Automatic annotation (TrEMBL):
Coiled coil stretches, renumbered: none
Name this protein carries in UniProt: 2-C-methyl-D-erythritol 4-phosphate cytidylyltransferase
Pfam families associated with the record: IspD (PF01128)
EC top class, as a word: transferase
InterPro entries for this protein: IspD, IspD/TarI, IspD/TarI_cytidylyltransf_bact, ISPD_synthase_CS, Nucleotide-diphossugar_trans
Pathway per the UniProt entry: Isoprenoid biosynthesis; isopentenyl diphosphate biosynthesis via DXP pathway; isopentenyl diphosphate from 1-deoxy-D-xylulose 5-phosphate: step 2/6
Role played: Catalyzes the formation of 4-diphosphocytidyl-2-C-methyl-D-erythritol from CTP and 2-C-methyl-D-erythritol 4-phosphate (MEP).
Keywords associated with the record: Isoprene biosynthesis, Nucleotidyltransferase, Transferase
PANTHER family: 2-C-METHYL-D-ERYTHRITOL 4-PHOSPHATE CYTIDYLYLTRANSFERASE, CHLOROPLASTIC
Keyword Transferase attributed: yes
Site (Positions MEP for the nucleophilic attack): 167, 220
SUPFAM superfamilies: Nucleotide-diphospho-sugar transferases (SSF53448)
Residue ranges crossing the lipid bilayer per the database entry: none
Amino acid sequence: MPNSSKDTNLRTAAVIPAAGRGVRLGPGAPKALRTLGGLPILVHAVRAMARARAVSVIVVVAPPDGAAEVRALLDAHGLPETTDIKVVPGGPERQDSVRLGLAALPDDVDVVLVHDAARPLVPVETVEAVVDAVRGGAPAVVPGLPLADTVKSVDPDTGAVTGTPKRSLLRAVQTPQGFDRAVLAKAHSSVSGEVTDDAGMVEQLGVPVLVVPGHEEAFKVTRPLDLVLAEAVLARRRVNGH
Ligand SMILES: Nc1ccn([C@@H]2O[C@H](COP(=O)(O)OP(=O)(O)OP(=O)(O)O)[C@@H](O)[C@H]2O)c(=O)n1
Ligand SMILES: C[C@](O)(CO)[C@H](O)COP(=O)(O)O
C-alpha cells in the first residue's frame, strides 16, 4: 500500500501493458523482460511512472503465463514503496491487456495513465505534463511530437500513393496517455475494432483529446535499432549524472 509522502488524494494510477511478445524486436524473451542497461525494460518503465509525484498505484499487465515471474522480478528490483504495484495477466492484443489492467484498478482512482512498457525512457517531465493536463480538466491527453518524415497514405494492395496529409497537422503520439477514468472505461467497454492506441478509442466516443509536447526519449522500443538507441540514451544520462 502507498505509505508515504505521495499525495494519495490525487488518486492517479498508471496501467503498464507489458504482455506483448516483441516480435519486431526479434527472437528472445517477451520484450518487456529483455535487458536494457542491465535491467529489464519493464523495470525502467515502472520506475519512470513511479517517479511522477502523482502516481500512487501501478498495474503491470504481464504476459498471460508470466504474472508470477513478473511479480518476482519487480520484487527483486527494489521498486519504491511509495507506490502500490499490482501485477495481472494480459490478453492477446494490447487493448485486451489494457482492459484487464483497468479492471484491476482500485475503486478510488479517478485519473489513469496508460503507458507502454516498451517506452522505458520517458522522462518524468512528460509524465507529469500529461497528468497535469488531465487533472486540469482535459478528459484525454496524449504526448506527441511533430514528424520528421513526410507521410503518405497508400493502397495496401497496389502500393499506389493515395494521398499526402499536410505534415504540419500531424503528430506522432507516445505514451503515457492520460484519461479521466470514467471516459477510458467507457471507451474500453463500448469501442471495438482496429485501434492502435487508447486515445483512438476515446476519439470514437466523440470525446476531445488534447496533445501536449512529447519527448524524443519517450520513443518505443520496437525494432533492434531502437534498443541500440535506448542503450545510447542511458549511457548519455549516466555521463550527465541522471
Ligand atoms: N497482447 C499485448 C500486446 C502488446 N502489449 C503491450 O503493448 C505495448 C506496445 O506494444 P508493442 O510495442 O507493439 O509490443 P509488442 O506487441 O510486444 O510488439 P510486436 O508487435 O513487435 O510483437 C508493449 O509494452 C506491449 O508489451 C500488451 O500488453 N499485450
Ligand atoms: C500506443 C502507441 O504506443 C502510441 O504510439 C502505439 O500505437 C502502440 O502501437 P503498437 O503497434 O502496439 O506498438
